[in-house]
Amino acid sequence: MKITNARVIVCSPGRNFVTLKIETDEGLTGVGDATLNGRELAVASYLSDHVLPCLIGRDAHQIEDIWQFLYRGAYWRRGPVTMTAIAAVDTALWDIKAKAAGLPLYQLLGGKCRTGVMVYGHANGRDIDETVDEVLRYRDMGYQAIRAQSGVPGLQSVYGVGRGRMFYEPADASLPSEHDWSTEKYLDHTPRLFEKVRDAVGWDVHLLHDVHHRLTPIEAARLGKSLEPYRLFWIEDPTPAENQEAFRLIREHTVTPLAVGEIFSSVWDCKDLIQNQLIDYIRATVVHAGGISHLRRIADLAALYQVRTGCHGATDLSPVCMGAALHFDISVSNFGVQEYMRHTEETDAVFPHAYSFQDGMMVPGDVPGHGVDIDEDLARKYPYSRAYLPVNRLAHDGTLWNW
Ligand code: GCO
Ligand code: MG
């Protein structure tokens, strides 16, 4: 089955998405997500200018060979732009292969390992009371795992606290907006938040929290220790992960589980953290970590060390990524949890999908392929609009910090 055509579709139904569509001489088509939040056009160009010309005429069934061609063949390996582009091709080809087999993708990945995929939703509030109310609302919607984030007194804007209730979207300005940050205020506030949340929601729900790369290792250790009484499922990205040794220090001080990896793009970013058992959950997902093919390698390495998966699933990952991730989640043995931030109605309409949510669990659906498509006519009505993620500055002196 030959690849006859491939195109990149950039659209913005509420937020920007980059989607790759591959066509074959047998009439089968496949789609892959290529969205890299805030740097969308870099991936669109990488694909259109450098990848697509090499795809035409290749056998669409040779997924692994094409993956290796794009990875090794570029000479310049890894990095988020390259790996997102490769992921889009890989996802579209798995979609085509599963359609050719007449099977939902999870069947080609070994079949179901579980009845459904536990997802966590985002409960956000401007203060503790509002966050507690949101956690209870999510529990009432059936969620078994809930991430809680709250505004911090004295800070203008804090990661995770958005404008809408279901649709938090940080990339909200045509130039980066500036947020302020105080580690001291945050470290005082967060244990209070979880004390109140646990009091209100009890112990039958998993609680998660995203630190979003903001602490130094010793500060992260202190946070992990102070949250131990509230038995969190994980704290995420407690400190930046460029220097992976940093996690050893956190580990020495706390038994709060650690999740890392939403910005990782290959197994090489994960290797030391996993092999040294410095984390409990690996957050890499389909679109930013080389597609289904590469994510399976990461998961297999993680399985050797009892590290489980917790795929990134924010709104900047399109429904195409979500669909593919659900096929991965339901078929991988060391699954932990899947993040699920709901897309807006406009986004859902542009990307018709077979996956669904019920009682805190999601299923990928049973249509052949990964079950997500793009309505190109509708997509054309939502042209690209430049949007950046914010930057962070320390509240007391304006030093640029990690957002
Ligand atoms: C998460 C993430 C996101 C990121 C976003 C950046 O845990 O869901 O941290 O909210 O900030 O994906 O593009
Ligand atoms: Mg995160």
Average pLDDT score: 97
What's the count of strands?
16
Q: CA-to-CA gap between the ends?
A: 45 Å
Largest sheet, described in full? 10 strands, mixed
Query: Which ranges are low-confidence, i.e. pLDDT below 50, for 5 or more consecutive residues?
Result: none
Give the amount of beta strand, in percent.
15-25%
Number of helices: 13
Rg for CA atoms: 20 Å
Overall tally of domains: 2
What letter string, H or E per element, gives the SSE order? EEEHHHHEHEEHEHEHEHEHEHEHEEHEE
Instruction: Give the CATH class of the largest domain.
Output: Alpha Beta
CATH architecture descriptor text of the largest domain: Alpha-Beta Barrel
What name does CATH use for the topology of the largest domain?
A: TIM Barrel
- What bound compounds does this protein have? D-gluconic acid, magnesium ion
> Structural class, please?
alpha/beta
The coarse overall form would be globular
Residue share in helix:
25-40%
Q: What's the CATH superfamily of the largest domain, by name?
A: Enolase-like C-terminal domain
